[in-house]
Amino acid sequence: VQLQASGGGLVQPGGSLRLSCNASGTAYSVANMGWHRQAPGKQREPVAIVTSGGTPEYADSVKGRFTISRDNTKYTNTVYLQMNSLKPEDTAVYYCNADIGNLQYWGQGTLVTVSS
Predict the structure, then answer these.
(1) What is the DSSP letter of 77?
(2) What is the pLDDT of residues 34-52, one digit of tens each?
């Protein structure tokens, strides 16, 4: 199983970015998919998750600003994170993850930097 994340970059405060992560290499159904982030010197923390049925949950710090969504087809399992009204404190490496069977898989991380 591979999770390939993309979409990070440098953005000014108040700006937007959209992260994508595709899960491939599995014939099993993908259950929850989500995003975590890890800021410099801090522990990794959950940002948002979305169930296989499309129900989202968000960390309090991103509610109202971030939107998680996913595309599920026979050959594609992709999760997105639309990030609006970005703040400097959103700066972190963002990791996608997916629950497949009894295991949790992680992507390689994509850096988001919010700075003027």
Answers:
(1) E
(2) 999 999 999 999 999 999 8
